[in-house]
Amino acid sequence: MSGLSGLIEQKLDGLPRRVALEWPGGRAGTPDADVRLTLHEPRWLGALARGQIGALADAYVMGQLDIDGNMRDLMAVAARLVGDPVERGRPTWWQQWWGRLQSHRRHVKERDARQIEFHYDVSDDFYALWLDPRRVYSCAYFRTQDMTLAQAQEAKLEHICRKLRLGSGQRFLDIGAGWGGLLLWAAQHYDVRAQGITLSKNQHAHVSRLIDELGLRGKVEMHLRDYRDMPEDQPFDRIASVGMFEHVGRAQLVAYFEKIRRLLVPGGLVMNHGITAGGVYNAQLGGGMGDFIEKYIFPGGELEHVSEVSKALAEGGLELLDAENLRPHYARTLWAWSDGLEAHLDQARAVTNERTVRAYRLYLAGCAMSFERGWISLFQLLASRPSGDVSTGALRGAQSAFPFNREYMYR
After folding, report:
1. Which residue stretches of 214-269 are H helix?
2. pLDDT digits (tens, 9 = 90+) for 78-95
3. DSSP 3-state assignment of 34?
4. Roughly how many angstroms between the first and final C-alpha of the chain, as a whole number?
5. Are residues 126 and 61 in the same domain?
6. Nearest-CA neighbor of 207 among 226, 191, 221?
7. Does residue 249 carry a pLDDT above 50?
8. For residue 238, is pLDDT > 80?
9. Closest by Cα among 269, 334, 7, 401 to 139
10. How confident is the model at residue 13 (pLDDT cuts 50, 70, 90)?
11. Which of 66, 182, 363, 387 could form a disulfide with 266 if both were Cys (CB 3.0 to 4.6 A apart)?
């Protein structure tokens, strides 16, 4: 243990924040620390020495590690312990084959439904403590630096609607509609006939209530349905998928985009907004952080680099029109969520439990840190189903509703 204690002291000396560490029979660090860690079992010292942040997060959720300190200070320490997990070597053909096989097994309909329920049906009251009033659970868009979270979420909804060129009377589908933020915004501000789908029973019930309260019955529909089960006999003019395709699985990505193409009218537009891997070959966060998120937060979640997503989109028969990286926006969004949860810890424990609160404290702050450092990213990919018609007036050659430039998105 003495050799390990020396290694721990050396680790703590090189950290960007002052850390105090205690464990049964020992202590290290400085008394005037920014972050205090108390290990109730010395077996976790090895994980700390190796930079296995995921294992330490597991210990925290299980109550075998206690943390005292600001979450930003804690994440600065965690980032230094992990190092840079983005770039790894190219996987072998065997590793790629095995990964695709596992992805196929993980993403059958029944299992996907259970995985979505595990995350999104934790407690509506819990999410309401730290999300904006519309409960938009995806990356906000800070069009100006002084925006609040609520303003930035509304700016994101507007940004997506503008990119999709929504208009009165259009048929609009929101895949993975969440608590209805985009679905209702599009109906109220752009007069579309909107349908939303989700696998979360809580979200379905919540949005169904809002539809009635807002007097939108007959104009907006919310269905408890898997995207693979959507009927294709009445295609949509516009489709949005926001914060959903992370649950699709890499083995299903081409089939996912093929389904979207069949659900779109020729010339129709689709917005795919979702998290991507920061590096080309890292399918999850390093230091065991990805395993922690898989276990406690998003079972079945899989990330691909934007280059692989774009390839799958093209193989699915869609044309990529515009790509926008919102990575810094998601870092700021997640810190806002983290701050919101930190301000309501007692209430969060009252509506869930200590284990859930501990897991989400690390998840929100850890993801904020990971987006800041580029370990993961967020892209909005605007695409179309080409119509084959090259003689459409002012849009001659476009084969879609995209008007050749971005001016319409921002004015």
Report:
1. 253-263
2. 988 887 655 455 555 444
3. coil
4. 64
5. no
6. 221
7. yes
8. yes
9. 334
10. confident
11. 387
Average pLDDT rounded to a whole number, residues 384-407: 88
Q: Are residues 70 and 120 in the same domain?
A: no
Residues 52 and 167 grouped into a single domain: no
Tell me which residue of 270, 118, 276, 143 sits closest to 202, measured CA to CA.
Answer: 118
71 and 132 housed in the same domain: no
Q: Catalytic one among 161, 367, 368, 398?
A: 367
Phi, psi for residue 150 in degrees, rounded to 5: -60, -45
The model's pLDDT over 37-47, given as tens digits with 9 standing for 90+, comes to 999 998 888 88
CB atoms within 10 A of CB 350: 13
Closest by CA to 79, choosing from 172, 13, 17, is: 17
What sign for the dihedral angle of Cα 76, 68, 23, 293? negative
| Average pLDDT across the chain, whole number | 88
Q: What is the mean pLDDT of residues 45-72?
A: 91
Cα 336 to chain centroid distance, Å, stands at 15
**Taking the alpha carbons of 163, 169, 175, 181 in that order, is the dihedral positive or negative?**
positive
**Same domain, yes or no: 363 and 253:** yes
Say if residue 240 is exposed, middle or buried (CB neighbours under 10 Å; 0-12, 13-18, 19+). Answer: buried
On whether the CB atoms of residues 51 and 287 are closer than 8 A, the answer is: yes
* Kind plus residue range of the DSSP H or E element containing 404: none
Q: Confirm whether 367 is a catalytic residue.
A: yes
- Do residue 210 and residue 310 come from a single domain? yes
**pLDDT for 300 beyond 80:** no
Angle at which helices 354-372 and 71-82 pack, to 10 degrees? Answer: 60
Considering the domain architecture, whether residues 237 and 367 belong to the same structural domain is answered as yes
